[in-house]
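Researcher: Here's a chain I'd like modeled. Treat it as a single chain, no partners, no ligands.
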Amino acid sequence: MCISEGAGRRPGDTIAQVEQAPKETDYGNELETAPFLRTNPKETVMGSTTDKIKGTANEVAGKARQAFGKSIDNHEEQVKGSIQEAEGKAQVAKGEAKEAIKKIVDKA
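Model: Modeled as a single isolated chain. Structure tokens:
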């Protein structure tokens, strides 16, 4: 069955051919980064607020893990908690840096 022309279709294209055609994607949107530009294709781009929220959550979880490790006298859990807390602090700093850069770019 042939379909009408338009939207990248050619005369004689079937429905199956049109459905298999590559779809156009707007890579101008920050959240839809072109896959070939990402270092990790499964990585999603987070905004500054998301980074700060997730970082704070990691800090709190890390502190809780440290306290748990201390309560059961497990040094390994304490170390893992302190690592998680440090990762959270780094993530918060990343979010703050993104926000500062965005403010500078918005002024320009």
